[in-house]
Amino acid sequence: MADLKNIVILGSTGSIGRSTLDVLEHDEGRRLRAAGLAAHSSWQRLIEQAQQHRPRWVALTDPEAAARVDGQLQGTNTELWIGREGLVRMVQQPEVDTVVSAIVGAAGLESTWAALEAGKAVALANKETLVVGGSLITELARERNAPLLPVDSEHSAIFQCLRSGTPREVRRVILTSSGGPFRRKTRRDLEGVTPEQALNHPTWKMGPKITIDSATLMNKALEVIEARWLFDLTPDQIEVVVHPESIVHSMVEFVDGSVIAQLSPPDMKLPIQYALNYPDRVEGPSPRLDLTRAWNLHFEPPDRETFPCLELGFEVMRRGGTAGAALNAANEAAVSRFLEGSLAFLDIPRACRAALDHHDFDPRPSLQTLERVDAWARQEVARWVP
Ligand code: NDP
Ligand code: MG
Question: Among all ligands shown, which has an atom nearest to the Cα of 155?
């Protein structure tokens, strides 16, 4: 029988965090155990999760939210830790085996870094961490012998397909994209798009930031960069194809021309479970493909003109250095302005373009330089007038 793994979930109250807890619930303590749960301010949901899963620790990064926790954990064995240091301390605990990195945005970098530094296996949903600091993060993981396991569905698919050959046998990887809610729209159609329309994703139910990223195709841009770092690929080995059904999660082409794909209904529990049990496969809670009815799969090239964010991703992947930090921070700031109503949908790629063009580029940045570029780009976009 496999050993019980102690899991910390950073971002347990979010979409990925909750799906991870569903995977743990289905496992019934056979292989996986929630050792720690962390969120920013959703204290009520975090307390409910703690009452159900009985972790050793919970943490809230927002001290005001933490101050509202009052007595609910009394009589339990769960300790409450507060602030960003609480997250770092949690991932460093000796009994922790795997850390699920599911905080949204560059805010997830610090705790993901701490987990890798402590030599823990990291199941990575937080792609922004690799977009900002891919070179330093992958170097740290190698140095500490800390496995970096993809949770993003496309990257999990590639990770699974790669088991069909050796790294030298790989010709290219093909990331699939649903095309988002605005597939086949023109730039004109996109001019007056509202947050409500952009939040209505056709195939996936996710947190608000990634849902907007899926509508602009910035999500695919970030995933191109994520793939480059996770699988040590060269920029011309990565391609994107639109596949609206979200059944084929990605493909790998080998040198002999054989293309291996991974298929399953769109549901994040499968890639989460694969990362947590890797290299084993176990029975799980995800729905299965129904092949008793007739169905079609479609593939089409992405519309790079209507969705300029995609090109930004390829450009940033080629440039490296601080470009990822500038792109990511500008996008986070622009998406939050779009959701508040102070920026138009089509201004998101424009704001990112401006931040990329005007930032102080450094080809070999330190972590401190990346933080400085991140802060600069956020500030610029916050006051940017289109
Ligand atoms: P959600 O918005 O649903 O959840 C975000 C989580 O992060 C919440 O638990 C939130 O806590 C926490 N959080 C937010 N800000 C901070 C902060 N500053 N410090 C600590 N914790 C914070 O996001 P998703 O679950 O959709 O996405 C999480 C990550 O996974 C993203 O990087 C996304 O790109 C990636 N991903 C998501 C997929 C999906 O299907 N949802 C698919 C593939 C990748 P609180 O509730 O207290 O605010
Ligand atoms: Mg994805």
Answer: 2
